[in-house]
Amino acid sequence: MPPKKKIKTGIVGFGLSGRVFHAPFISIHNGFKLHSIVSSGNVAKQNYPKAKVFNDFLSLINNPEIELVVICTPHLIHAEQAAMALEKGKHVVIEKPVAMNSHDFYKVIEISKKYGKRIFPYHNRRWDGDFLTIRHIINEGYLGKIIEFESHFDRYTPLVTRAEWRYSQENGGGTLFDLGPHLIDQAIALFGAPLSVFCLLYYQRKGSKVNDSFDLKLLYHSHAVTLKASVFVKEPGPRYQVHGTSGSFIKYGIDSQEAALKTGKIPNSKNFGNDPKKYWGILNSNAYSKETRIRYATLPGKYMSFYDDVYATINEQKEPEVTPEDALLNMKIIEAAMESAKERRIIEL
Description:
The protein has 349 residues and is an alpha/beta fold. Helix content is 34%, strand content 22%.
C-alpha cells in the first residue's frame, strides 16, 4: 500500500489547545506533517524541533507549502483568522467556539465555499469514550425512545487560574462559550436541532464580568435535554443521565484523554483513552423483553478519529463528521441561550 500523502499543517497558538489537543495528534498521524507553529515562546521549538516556528500569523498563512491551518488562539479572533487563512487557500480547523456570533461564522462558511476549502470545527468531545458509549447504547435500542438526556461538565475552580480574559472581559464569553459548545455539540449529534431553548446564567466568582456557570435546556418535540456546567462542584454527580421508555444509563467520571495528554502521554499509546472500570456506567434496561442491570464497559475515547476524519474529508471528498452547519447551529443555540437568560423566557429557534 503506497504511503499517504501528508497534509502540511500549521498550528496557530501553542497554549493548552495547540500544545495538548492538536500538536500531539498531528505530529504522529501518518497523514499529516507538522510543518509550522505560531508561538511567541520557546516551548514549541523544544517540543517539536523539526517544525518551523513563526512569531506571527501572517508568516504562516503566507507560506505556500501549508495546506491546513489549525486555529488555537483566543476565541475572540477565531472567525477573523479562519477567514484570512481560507482566503489564502488553506483548509482550516477552528477551535471551539468557532466565532463569537453566528453572523461572523456564517461569513466564514461563505468564504470557505468561495475558495473551495474546508472548515473543521474542533468539537472533539464527539470522540469522548463515554459519549461514544451513549451513542452506541441508544443506537442499539437499549433505552427505547429517549425521554430525558442530562449532561454535566462540572469543575471546582473558585478562582480563575487560566484564560483570565475569558471572564474579565465583557466579550470574553465565559463558561457558556468555553464548555457550552462541547455539550451542545453532543446534543446536536444525538438529536439534531431543538425547537426551543431556555437558559439560566450564573455570575458567581469575584471579578467575573461574564457567566461562570450555566443551566441550559434544549426542548424537543417529545424529550428534553439538560446541559449544565458549574465552577463550584466539589463533589461531582453523574456526568450523564439518560432515560428512555426502555431503560436508563447513568455514567460517572469524565473521559480520560485530556488528563493523559496533559501528562505527556502519547495518543494511540497503550491504554490511551481507556476508562477505569470503576467509572463504567450503569445500564438498567428491559429492552427486547429482557431485564438487564449491568456495568457497561466504556468504549475507548478516540480523539485521533477527529484527524482521521479531517484527512478523509480533504482527500476522499467525504462529508465531515462535524459539519460547519453543526457549528453554526451551535452558535445559534448559544445566542438563544443568552437571550433566554437575559429575558428569563423560552426562546424559539
